[in-house]
Amino acid sequence: MTLAIGRRTATESATAGPAPRRAWRRLPATPALLRSLTPLALLLAWQVGSETGALSERILPAPSVILDAGLEVWRSGELGDALAVSGQRVLLGFTLGAVVAVVAAVLAASSRLGEYLVDPPMQMLRTVPLFGLIPVFIIWFGIDEQPKIFLIALGVAFPLYLNTYAGIRQLDPKLDELSRVLGLTTAEKLRDIVFPGALPHVLVGLRQSLGIAWLSLIVAEQINASAGLGFIVNNAREFLRTDIVIFGLLVYGLLGLITDAAVRVVERRALRWSTR
């Protein structure tokens, strides 16, 4: 009797197929949707808190109020001009910082002499408070565009330098022997061996550097900015327009997310061989 029950149970299990998955596992969720759940929940809680009076309108306006303020800035044409100016500052600062970082990392990681000459000053400068250099930059370069661009470049350089340096140093020494056997020139070695091998680390440094570039821009545009997002935020602060101030900060954050997402796309395509 027990054997018959066991056979029937085994037969029923075999014909029944795999156990049905839970309903939430069958939901057509995408990574983008899952990543947006928490921000949407926080946004909803923020709106509810503002409408119920739990959050002071003077200190933190409701999302709907901030959206109206953003539409006001957009319709006036100020936002488009500000994005163009701020984007140009980030582009120039990032390009300058990235070039310095990659060149310094290659020199420091390629030989002992380069390491002794380049790495110590880079490590020393890395520990200097970035935003504490603002008064020095104003004295050196004035209050025009130069201090803003150099501040962004300095913030960009160190994360990219550290990651590129680490990526080059972790390469298999046998690859260096292979390049000598093949008779590769220095440029060919960098193009075909060094940079492809260090690419995962470089992309990590790139994501960090882009994030710091936008953070540096927020501070840099407080230096007598006559245009850009910082100019809009400073004007709104003078007139106690908290809604426009927060809208400007949200735009900074959104720009950072967009650039980070762009690098993530490049990372997925460039590292298809990775098992991660």
From TrEMBL:
Subcellular location, record wording: Cell membrane
InterPro entries, alphabetized: MetI-like, MetI-like_sf
Keyword Membrane: yes
Residue ranges, annotated region (Disordered): 1-20
Signal peptide positions on this chain: none
Domain of life: Bacteria
Keywords: Cell membrane, Membrane, Transmembrane, Transmembrane helix, Transport
CDD domains hit by this protein: TM_PBP2
Transmembrane segments annotated in the record for this chain: 90-113, 125-143, 149-168, 244-266
Record domain ABC transmembrane type-1: where: 79-263
Pfam annotation, one family: BPD_transp_1
Membrane topology value: Multi-pass membrane protein
Family: Belongs to the binding-protein-dependent transport system permease family.
PANTHER family named in the record: ALIPHATIC SULFONATES TRANSPORT PERMEASE PROTEIN SSUC-RELATED, ALKANE SULFONATE ABC TRANSPORTER-RELATED, MEMBRANE SUBUNIT
Protein name: ABC transporter permease
